[in-house]
Amino acid sequence: MKKWLWSLVLILSVLVGVYLARVPLSLWAIKHFMPDNEVQISCLDWRLSGFNRIHITKACVQTEAFNAQLFDTQLSMRQVNIEKADIQLLPPKNSDAAQPQRLVLPLDIARPKMRIAKLSISGEPLPKPLVVSISESELNQFVVSGDIVAEVTLQPERIAANVELSGEYLRTLLPPQIQALSGTSQLVFNGLALDAEMELETLLALEQAECKGSAAYIGAVSGRYDLTNQQGKIALAEPISAKSTLDCFDSEYRKLLPSTWQLRLPSEIIISAKAASTGSLEVIGEDKSLQLEVNELAVDLTEPFVNGDIRLEFADEKWGAHTLAGAFSVRPNFVDMSGEITSDLQKLTLQDVIAENLELNSRFKISGDPTELIKVEAQPTIFSTQLSTSGLMIDNPSLKLDLHAQLDVPKLKSEHRLHRVLPEGMSFAITLDSTLRNLNVENVTAKQSTLSGRVVLEPTHDFDINLNLISAQIQQQNYKLNELVQTLRWQGSVATGEIFSTLSGNTKVAEVNLADLNLKDVSIESKGQQSRGLMASHVINIDGVKALFEHQYSNLKHPAQLHVPTQQLTQLQPYIDALLPELKMTNGNFYAVLEGDLSTRIFTLDGGIQNGSALFNERLIQNAAVDVSAQLGSANIQLKPTTLSVEELRAGVIVQAIQAQLLSEAGIVKLKDIGAQVFAGSINIEEVKLIPTPQEVQVSLDKLSLDLIAASGHDAGVELRGLISGKLPVQVSSSGVRIDSGHIHNVSEGLLKVENNASINALKAQQPSLQTVIGVLDELTIEQLSSGVNLSEDGWLDLDVKITGINKRQQQPVNFNYTHSENVFTLLRALRLSDEITREVENALNKEER
């Protein structure tokens, strides 16, 4: 008996010792039987709280994934109650990921149910501690409440969870763009894949500068992620609705874009740890006819990188129908997109521009760094049945362009402009080829025109513009150009405030038809320099006539000079034929210099003619000379006095040594102090106005030889000697020339002698009784001669001649009155056809033919 008692005491002593050393013994056992790399218990304080119940005051558990502390835990065969648990998540260590395995949970082991009154989880990636409570209503079925509401069911081969997606804590985990989220999520995990079925109500807000928008989705979302190949898929049952307020666009363009959108994903989104892709994506405008379709969209999440095929269709009543189709790839520092744009619009009205039946087709390519440098290539072709703007109308214009451009994005964002026009950071090369069948601007019409060229703007701000214009015909009411060919080259540099450039060009016109003049073979060679103003020179050649036109242009003035060097007058014959076909130039030179300001239209003219000879209505003008200096204004002409001289004028009568003063007074050009030698005497005219209005010209005759006058007549056998003078008031008007009440008289004693005159002899034979009377005229000394002179506009000259004299042979005084009427135009025409004038005419015409 005593031995049994001592054994009992020994056993109780061991139990008491073990209980008192329970903590270190528990830690030793756990450390001995559990692997070191999986779970470590650093602290453990427990006691028995009943026959089959243990109370753990505190336990510390460490793993590679977390550190945990458990407080006030009650353990029994049926229930584990943890009043408080704190879990600190640890950053993952770099290690080779284990191959996923299908779940095989040891759930057949009998264990007590669990309850955690307060579980706090903190550490990355959580923004703040997550506090929940967990209760196990049935074995392996858990209810989670608190910051997250969920139901979790454990089965040997899977874990299933139903999670409520609303709540403040989940909102903190979402990006700031997601403003609202609600719904439920059903998750199933089997160790190899995660399946999800969700019912969502979410609102996404986007804001970039002034561009604001929102997107909403209400509907089911299903997905699966396979851990074995690290790939998953997501499918949306409903389209995503989006709204936008595009204040970042100009109001004119903002009206074109839809404010409400729908995003459809007809196929699944394939996702992996490195990429996401979908077979197709559609964006459809609800309040505007716009549809965007993206096919084979792929997103590389590691680089990241996006590529796909895109098709955009847009239709607007004002802007027409447009389609864009192409392929694109985008990464953070590179964009590459190429495709084709087509547009069709019945009528486009843009400010003052109206285009009918406008068609556009263009290939394009955009590539580069959107933050640094972007390259743009495009080959647009534009056609319209009619284009009109500000009085300009073009029928069936077509335009082909080849564009290569570079956009320096940082410089473009600075919004600095070169010469207040071109954005800094833009460089390009444009080749153009256009056809303009019929062009009308105000009263000007151009037919069958083409415009081609190349425009280049270098990144260094140097530019080079080459243009070629060809037009079959350009016509205005007063002129017409045939076969115009024009080239222009403009080179220079665009500085921040100045443009420094050079210009060169060539213009050729086969024929210029003016109202009364035709110009042929017109050629103009042009050169110029431009800085603050324009300095240009033009070498003009019109059917052999050469000229140099120089001018300077600025905001204040536009001085110009036209210099016509000394050239032969015969070069002007084609133009004289159009204006005055009766005038034929035979010899001589001319020159002219015109200087002035095109803005004020005030010019000075210096010019002249030397050794000028011409035929005018069979009148021969020889060795004419004049130097002219004048000032021309919009209202009048001021001509400095100069001398006009003509060596000889043959008009039946030979007029020599013609001289006159050419000048202007009160804006009227005049010839004054006109003098000439004729019939061994002289004639003088005080003044002739070179205007079409009627005027009276006083012609003075001084000592004209009667014998020369008689010799020019057509009656043989009549000899007349002496000198006469007189005054002839000549009336000049547009209808002709006439003389009213002119008068001539003899200067000294003269002689009238009739010998073998056919008319006188016939009169004597018919009337013998008159022989004595007529006989006194056979040789009459003229003491006094006077005559009235009248000339009609049709050339009839009437003379009322009174002669007083004596026949010295017969000592017979004579008073003789005689009236004579003859058409002097006919007489002069007959005289002009004499052998001498005919010879001169032939020589002049022969020179012209050569």
UniProtKB/TrEMBL annotation:
Top-level taxonomic group: Bacteria
Pfam family, one: YdbH-like
InterPro entries referenced in this protein's UniProt entry, alphabetically: YdbH
Official protein name in the record: Dicarboxylate transport domain-containing protein
Taxonomic source organism: Pseudoalteromonas peptidolytica F12-50-A1
